[in-house]
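Final report, closing paragraph on structural work. Over the funding period we assembled a curated collection of sequence-structure pairs, and we close with a single example.
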Amino acid sequence: MAQKFADEIIKAIVSKYYDETRDYIGISQIPYCELKLYRDVKRGRKQDVPAHVLQRMFIGTAAHKGMEELLLWYAKEKNAQFIPVDTESEIVIRDERGVPILKGHFDFLFIWKTGRKTGTLVDFKFIGHNHFRMIEKRNEAPAHYVDQMYLYAYAINEEKENPKFKDFKVTDCLLVMIDIDPPPRKEGLYIKEFRFRTNKKRALELIEKKIHLDKCLAEGMEPEKPFESPDESWECNYCDYYEECWGAQLKLKSKGKGKKLVPDELAKRYIELKSKKDEIEQQMEEVRQQITEMIGEYDAMSKDGALIIKYIPEKIKQKEEVDLDKLKAFVNDNEILSQVIKVKEKKTGGYHKFDVKKTK
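Its predicted structure, as stored:
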């Protein structure tokens, strides 16, 4: 089978996310759930992110760089109404002893040519169309993005060591939301901006949150859950620790009284079935690994919930022949596994393919 360069691109995007580590909690993370941050650090893990979301994140990162370069070019070559001060710079927040406790990178900093000569801090968010339409409809800046900007502005205003910011003050923040997959529109672009003043009081509250988190990490003491129920925050529905915090519950992406529309007996039945499904999938994975060992690791792959076992005629000569009857018996001997998968042989092109798939 011909190699696909697209597969290498996907691997590169996924590897970049999971391989990159840092020894600090960034400014952009602090507005989120303290308990989740604690568990991530203590367990040395990152939030599991689907490949398509990682692709969108990569596009957003590239778009940030492109936007900053575009604005610098525009300010230099055209009659721009703003003067760039700095772009994509690392900023540090220190405690009273001067020890760094938070770090991050802000996007863009400028001064208007007319009006007050104070700085405006810009943060770009490149988001999907559905997310953009939701924010556009609500006409309200997401609180966690606003909190990030309060911290960036505070860090710039308190910076004493960087000469760029020594006599500089940020007074305004601009959160710019940009749709990365917009449909056609008769007028204008899918860009929404929110303007707000800096908020030192809120920034100090978030810094205290980080100080408390550091104390919890040092003492090995989990912070309390910041919510009384998972309905209080959208974060819970997307968190890997959902069941650890709330137990097995029916998760619905509905608002208000949505959960009350589901009868208790149906919710309970759904949870029971999900538990069985998780158990079966775990057993299937264990058997998949055993089957992989039987036929050679480089000839097996998992795709869309199915185990695809392939071998090339030239390669099979170099090892023991795979016995289809033996493989079927191996599956059928497993009481749970035999109820949910089947084995069959296909011949396509230069390949013989054994598919171990879920039954309908």
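Confidence is low (pLDDT under 50) at residues 253-259, 296-300, 311-321, 339-360. The longest strand covers residues 82-94. We thank the funder for supporting this effort.
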